[in-house]
Amino acid sequence: MASTPTPQSPSEPRLTPGEVYRMLEAGNDRFVAGTPGHPNQGAEYRSSLTSGQHPKAVIFGCADSRLAAEIIFDVGLGDVFVIRTAGQVIDDAVLGSLEYSVDVLDIPLVVVLGHDSCGAVTAAVESYETGRMPPGFIRSLVERITPSVLAAQRKGITDVDGTVAEHVDQTCDRLVESSRHLYRAVRDGRTAVIGLTYSLADGETTLGRVLGDID
After folding, report:
1. What is the pTM of this model?
2. 167 is in an annotated binding site
3. Any known ligand binding at 172?
4. In CATH, which of 3.40.50.10800, 3.40.1050.10, 2.40.50.220, 3.60.110.10 is domain 17-211?
5. Does 115 belong to an annotated binding site?
6. What share of the chain in percent tops pLDDT 70?
């Protein structure tokens, strides 16, 4: 595994989107190998964060209990700004949180994190196939994921895991299309948006859509 940056302190220079991605990639490598470092989790470091936060990445992921971002990427307190909804569905609160993370916290990398066997995506695929909508507010989740299901179908993708990967990519696109603030941040090179799909079985993440520069 190549040498990669570790989470910096507030006094250190701002990392580039690519440096942050490699930091997360290295943390995921440690997690997969079963050798996590559990950085930035001690009492002294916790106390150092009382004056403010300086996260390096914002992770917008599914609310699934098996998708704990800090564990998957082996980071600690203050390292990532996490937003979670079932099926990483976008709403106004999500967009507001993302704009805050980019414009106020000056975070250089936005990660959209999906996972295989996603229940919300499964419900959307089943609804498409059967023509039946689920009850209550689960219907709202399905309605918001359905455009990704349709995009996958147009590419000949019919399985849930393939649709999950397509939904991650589509979500990256929608974030930048929906938020002028995110669009400008990516356009100006301040931020990059990437899609990652997580494997529940082996813990690995697979890179999908990349909007911006992470080289």
Report:
1. 0.91
2. no
3. no
4. 3.40.1050.10
5. yes
6. 94
